[in-house]
Write a structure and sequence with these properties.
367 residues, alpha/beta, Rossmann fold, 2 domains, six-stranded parallel sheet, 15 helices, 13 strands, 14% strand
């Protein structure tokens, strides 16, 4: 069979799609459709899949010249998607998030309406609060996978609460000793893993560096910080200065395409609250301190983080609290042995019954 995935913009939209694609690789022809100037141009080829690009633009919330320009770009993207789908002749179309999904899913629906295709169209929504693009697409698709929260009552019949699929590379982690050696860390000491998502997070980086300079990080802990490319040089300069003063082990990397080593050594995770990251934390049972991105559309990261906080699987702190120096106190609370064990246990309770297996079963039913 042939499966076309549409999505992009962030790792949270791409990695669940790649998880499904990897599981189908041996029995399906896979292709991705995305934008020419977003993260998918790097992540998808590295994962080993072809990427086709189309014109797309986020729709503004108000009527304006920008709205007309965005509509024109999406019309162009729909025409391009019609041509790509006519060539690929997919048996299944899976939209996994980002505004580029809109013209692709619309083109797939048009092909079905005019009798040129019978391919089911599926929407994977990993966030608890669906965004504008997702809400616009929901009436067009045949099924909705993922968390399935926040949809209107008349759409809930389409929902299949599968949870968020996790990449195969994270389903079997390397040993702590092997991973620590590759990352230049001591396997005998606990590790705080700081990740800001695919673009990095300045608020997290600045708070960590502030704690590092004032020697306020948890005693005896090491830090592995994935800074994002834009912040990497700044963080490295601060880390060098701190090491010269004899302060804590702190390893900075701009990004990791494969997170297996990082998760294998992580005893506590400091992260944004993107749905893909939270799916990984639940699957791996990792305790966390979550910092929801305050400008995420529809405040979906706040909703994601609130679920983990309510379940006792994470502490939640805002960008404003980080800026005011709250991080050392939060880390002191989270790294207390009993608290850490409770957070980890509750995180494991959030893991659903193998989301990937549920999604593969749905594909077998649909196709």
């Amino acid at each position: 069979m042939t499966v076309v995935f549409a999505g992009g913009g962030t790792g949270g939209h791409l990695y669940p799609a790649i998880a499904i694609a990897d599981a189908l690789r041996s029995r399906a022809t896979i292709a991705f459709i995305g934008s020419a100037d977003r993260l998918e141009t790097t992540i998808v080829p590295k994962a080993g899949y072809p990427l086709h690009t189309v014109s797309a633009h986020a729709l503004p919330r108000r009527l304006s010249f920008d709205f007309l320009r965005a509509a024109a770009r999406n019309v162009k993207g729909t025409l391009q998607s019609l041509a790509l789908l006519a060539s690929a002749r997919p048996d299944l179309v899976v939209a996994t998030g980002g505004y580029v999904c809109f013209p692709v899913a619309l083109a797939a629906r048009i092909r079905k309406l005019v009798g040129l295709s019978r391919a089911p169209i599926v929407l994977l929504e990993p966030n608890l609060a669906p965004g504008l693009t997702t809400r616009l697409l929901a009436p067009m698709v045949d099924e909705i996978w993922g968390e399935c929260g926040g949809f209107a009552k008349h759409l809930r019949a389409k929902c299949r609460p599968t949870g968020v699929p996790v990449r195969s590379s994270l389903r079997s982690l390397p040993s702590r000793e092997t991973a620590a050696t590759r990352l230049r860390l001591d396997p005998a000491k606990p590790v705080l893993l700081a990740i800001g998502g695919s673009q990095g997070a300045r608020a997290i980086n600045d708070a960590l560096l502030g704690a590092l300079k004032s020697n306020a990080l948890p005693a005896g802990w090491q830090v592995l910080s994935l800074t994002g490319a834009a912040e990497y040089d700044k963080v490295c300069a601060a880390v060098r200065a701190a090491k010269e003063a004899g302060v804590a082990t702190f390893v900075a990397l701009p990004y990791l395409d494969e997170m297996g080593d990082a998760y294998a050594v992580a005893d506590l995770v400091l992260a944004r609250a993107g749905a893909s990251t939270l799916g990984e934390l639940a699957a791996l049972g990792k305790p966390a301190v979550l910092v929801p991105y305050p400008f995420a559309t529809e405040a979906h990261q706040r909703a994601n983080a609130a679920r983990f906080e309510a379940a006792g699987a994470a502490l939640v702190v805002t960008d404003q609290q980080l800026a005011s120096g709250a991080l050392p106190g939060v880390l002191t609370e989270a790294t207390a042995p009993q608290r850490l064990a409770t957070l980890a246990s509750n995180a494991r309770q959030l893991a659903q019954n193998d989301p990937l297996a549920q999604i593969l079963a749905r594909i077998d039913t649909l196709v």
